[in-house]
Amino acid sequence: MIHRLLAVLSLAFFIGNAVNAEPFVQGGPIGSQTSDGYNALGPVVQQPIEFPHYRHARDMGINCMYCHTGARRGYVSAIPRIDKCIGCHQNIESVRNKPRIKKLFEYWDKKEPIPWKKVNDLPDYVRFNHERHIQRFYFRQNRPVREVCGYCHGDVANMTVDRRVKALSMGWCISCHQKDHKESDTNMKTSHGPGECWQCHK
Amino acid sequence: MSITNLLNNWSFYRNKRPYRGQYDLNRQYSEYKWAMALDLDVCTGCNACTTACYAENNLPVVGKKRFQHGQVMHWIRIERYWDEKMGEFPEKGASFLPMMCQQCEAAPCETVCPVGATSHTNDGLNSQNYHRCIGSRYCSANCPYKVRYFNFWNYPSTAWPAPLPDQLNPDVTVRTKGVMEKCTFCVQRLNEAKSRARTEYRLVRDGEVVPACVQACPTSAITFGNIVDPKSKVAMMWKNQQVDLYKDMQEKDNTVRGYRILEDLRPFPSVMYMERVRDMEA
Predict the structure, then answer these.
(1) Of A124, A193, B75, B176, which alpha carbon lies 20 to 30 A from B130's?
(2) Half-sphere exposure of B9 (CA within 13 A, CB side)
(3) What per-residue confidence (pLDDT) applies to A5?
(4) Residue B96 lies inside a defined structural domain of this protein
(5) Within 13 Å of residue A109, how many CA atoms lie on the same side as its CB?
(6) B32-74: per-residue pLDDT in tens?
(7) Structural domain of residue B226, as residue ranges?
(8) Which region among A139-143, A168-172, B7-11, B96-100 has the lowest average model confidence (pLDDT)?
(9) How many domains does chain B have?
(10) Interhelix angle for A82-89 vs A99-109, to 10°?
(11) How many domains is chain A partitioned into structurally?
């Protein structure tokens, strides 16, 4: 049972039963416009632990993909399992008595996964390939990781609990795919993202 | 595009796909063109491909009554027919042929869709977007192979009772009532293989990815691959059988068995069949 729950948790892009899927709520409250013109700010999500992204990604400078390991090799970026958290935090005595860490170890002692809630949700008929974007912009072009992830996820390094800031709608995806991205600093050839239905829709 | 323009340049527009050299590695128009070769001499008609397709692509089982109404949803089917004169024992002349979407280059279904739900991909596949489809069924009417299937019923609520939704393939949408669907050459597998290959700075290797029907075929009657690569197995079979993707009528000698179905309608299908050789006197 625990393994099953862990597997479910690890899918940030969990695709469930299409019949019983939750309705896809697009955009945020009226008036919350982003710089690219899409009404995008998502709802505030109450997570079981208020995970401080700013502490890990900004203050400590940890690469996003240290925890979200799936992003460079698969469709889903994956929310880390609890042993990933414990692996570091059992050796960090200085924060051991902070309330969030206590909560973390409570889950660990109970041998239960943390029931994280999804923040960046896509409809079931869309697949977003994290690997392609990370491989292209991070590994091939050596752009900073916070910039590459930030194209879609916003400035997570300055957030506590992650909140959706981009529309994640088809028009928004296409608006970037239609741009010509330079392949490298030396190669002036440009290429834009694929525009076929079947690249994203399944 | 005005009608006058269309009529004046009919041959150009009609020949837009496939144009010669469209799938050529040296010209770098497109790196992939998925194609099949199906050897009817090897095929035993066991229906394993159909079963595999049902499992892979979340096809609903419709039941006897709806089958009789012609509402069955098999993307690949074994067609039976008795066309050979066998005299005293006509059942001896039974033939069968697996029929799936032929992924035509000049696909008749694409031109008639009023909302552009079906279109061509760079890989030479005939894509079907379920969420744009409005269910006009023009494509099915225009398909010479009759391989497009329409969801007359709301299968998601009936075809899979309680524990069965757990076995659905999460990479394929469960289609709802009122949309058209068809064989995709298992595009979810192709996309994954292409992504893996691009990460490793290479093209998809021959045999690295196959659709479910090819994987399940016990006699390896179906060969699948990238016809752009001249060394792939399927490209060599097409060449050996003297079937050319760009031609609507093949000039070949009688010793080879390869043909494409309804070639003279000029849809330029991507599936080559090889005739069954029969001993008519036995």
Answers:
(1) A193
(2) 9
(3) 45
(4) yes
(5) 7
(6) 999 999 999 999 999 999 999 999 999 999 999 999 998 999 9
(7) 19-274
(8) B7-11
(9) 1
(10) 120
(11) 1
* Contact yes or no for A201 and B188 at CB 8 A: no
Cα B49 from chain centroid? 13
Within 8 A by CB and 6+ apart from B133, the residues are: B115, B117, B118, B178, B179, B180
Contacts of B130 in chain A (CB under 8 A): 125, 201
List chain B residues with CB under 8 Å of A135.
Answer: 198-199
Q: Reply yes or no on whether the pLDDT at B267 is more than 80.
A: yes
Range of the domain at A59: 2-16+23-200
Within a domain: B197: yes
Which of A4, A170, A198 to mutate to test binding with chain B, by most B CBs within 10 Å of its CB?
A198
- Contact with chain A for residue B199, Cβ under 8 A: yes
ipTM computed for the complex: 0.81
The DSSP symbol for A201 reads B
Residue B106: name the closest of B10, B1, B232 by CA: B10
Kindly state whether residue B10 falls inside one of the protein's structural domains. no
Mean pLDDT of B253-274: 90
CATH number for the domain harbouring residue B68: 3.30.70.20
How many Å lie between the alpha carbon of B217 and the closest alpha carbon of chain A? Answer: 24
User: How far is B43 from A178, CA to CA, in rounded Å?
Assistant: 45
